[in-house]
Each structure stands twice: as structure tokens, then as C-alpha cells.
Structure prediction request, 353 residues.
Amino acid sequence: MKATIAVLPGDGIGPEVMAHTTNLLSIIAEKNGHGFEFVEGLIGGIAIDETGNPLPDETIAICETADAVLLGAVGGPKWSEPTSTVRPEQGLLKIRQHFGLFANLRPVKTYPALASHAPLRPDLLEGVDILFVRELVSGIYFGDRQEQGDGTESYDTMYYNRDQVEQVANVALRAAQGRRGKMTSVDKANVLASMRLWRRTVVEIHEDYSDVELEHLLVDACTMHLLTRPGDFDVVLAGNMFGDILSDEASVLAGSLGMLPSASLRADQFGLYEPVHGSAPDIAGQGKANPIGMFLSAAMMLRYSLQLEDEAKSIEDAIDAVLADGLRTADIRGANGEFATTDEFAQAVIAKL
Ligand code: IPM
Ligand code: MG
Prediction:
């Protein structure tokens, strides 16, 4: 098949992990007779430096003609002074909203070989396999806000309507049907009106999914349950801000944030794929970045936007095989402190394909 892929490396370690990912995809394309065309665009801090805009129109145009978007990471201390009014993160929020990418999928799985890197007892981590479905284009991130009135007050608004909850609940419930048949919906219905609407809507939508077991958790309790019984969760559905917080919390179950991919989807096959880790400016350019999060994001792209399930699986299997061989990047290095550079690790994955 032929596909055009928009490539937005961004800042920090974004460009390093992205270069290895396009290389990996080119090799997969060559082996399987596909034609992937990569078109590069600016986003984040580098886009601010070059154009003054964290998401230039040209980047939007590139993404509009693409079948899918791969994104590295945005941000860094250079652009994050408290007084900065133009911030790299605005590029990320804008691209999500512009393309209506309402469903953010963040799978978290534990790798038995990495259990010693996670801060929980290994017995708690057995069989952890959670899919977070985070609502991504509404809620408090996009509600009415006042940045500053006379300088002494400001506010943000958590707004949801029925349609917004319905569309993301459908994604999560369908995902649960294809997995272990369980969904946990997270809210704060005991305090917030928007979260009572959330719960009511989820209950109603769930009526069409009698094969899915539904559980409701208040977000504060959920933070605790994720640590005391992580193996019980299957699909976790949450609003924009709660999903942001819970997915970071759960990421440590995998042993390192560097391992985790994400997909941001809408109702058609278009999607944006990015690792969950950020730009990690402290380790940029040192060969210490873990390419797994970006590689697994590319695998999700092959699966969801390009319907290339076998190719997606080949990336996941290659990573498993390299980890089974004992190779480790800096973030998951063993007691002896030795680690493979980003380059060495990426080459090892490619060699397994
Ligand atoms: C994420 C990040 C972003 C978010 C930031 C960088 C705007 O934390 O993707 O989880 O809050 O959504
Ligand atoms: Mg986050």
C-alpha cells in the first residue's frame, strides 16, 4: 500500500527517536512492498524559533494531506519561562483540537523483565495490561477561561456535553469488547456537575454493550486502586485532565515512561501517534533516549490508520525479542549500569525484523 505520513519530530529527544522510527518504517515498507512517503513539518519550540508559531499553517497543511501523523515531543526550558505567552505545548493542544482527535489511547503493559524498575512489588505487576482512553479535545483543557483579570484572578471551566462523552465512551466500550470485556469509567461525580453528566451518559451508552462489565470510580479512589490492584483494570475511560494525570501515574507500572506509545484518533482512520514521554531536554543528544515509545507509536499507526496489523505486530515482537536478549536503554539499565545507546538499541530492533 501507499501512504503519506506527516513527520513532526519536535524538540529535545523527539528528533532522535523520530529518525530511528522513519528508518524502521522504511525498512518495513521495503520488506513488505509498501510505499511510505514521509513529509516533515515543524511543531513546538523549534517551530516557535523558526516561525514564531508553535503550530505553523504549513504544518497543518502537511498533516491535512497525510494519512497519519507521527509526532516526537515538544517543549523545553528555553520556551517555558513563566512569562512566555507562546509555548510549545500550545502546538500540541492545537493540533489535537484542529483535527478533532477526541480519543487518546494509551496502553500500559508490564514487561516481566523490567519489573525491578517499577516502584511496586513484582507480584502486583503480574499481568498488568491496561488501555487508557482519554477524552482529548474537550473538558477543562478547552473550556472557557480567563487568563488574568486585573492580575489577581483567573479561571478555567470543565465543560462536557452529551455528544462529547458519548463519542469517546463508544471508543472505550468497543475497545473493551475486543479485550477482556471490562471498562472502568473515572469521574468526580460526587462534586462536579460536568462529571455527573459524564457518569449519566456513560451509563446510558453502556446499555448497548451488555457484554462489557462497567465499573465507576471516583478519580481520587482510582489513583489508589491503580497502585493496589493494577492487574484488575482492562479499559479505563477518563476525561481530558483526569486521563492526563492517571496515565502518567500508570506509566510507572511499565518500568519506564520511555516505553509507552499513544494514539489520538477520531472517527475515521486518520490519527496522530506520539510517545507518552516528553522532550526530555536533560538527555537530548546523548544517546540515552529510549526509542521504544516512539517505535510502539509507529506500530499503533500501522495498526489503526494503515490497517497493517502484521507489520505492527512485527515491530512489537522485535522489541520484545531485543528486551528478552537483555539489551537495555539508559532508562531501564541494570545494576551494572551498562546500557545500549539509542542507536544501538534501534539497530538491534531492526535486526530482529
Ligand atoms: C500529555 C501532555 C500534554 C497534555 C501537555 C504537554 C500539554 O502532558 O500529552 O499528556 O497535558 O495533554
Ligand atoms: Mg500528560
Residues 244, 248 surround magnesium ion (ligand 2) (CB under 6 Å). The chain has a mean pLDDT of 96. The first strand starts at residue 2 and ends at 10.
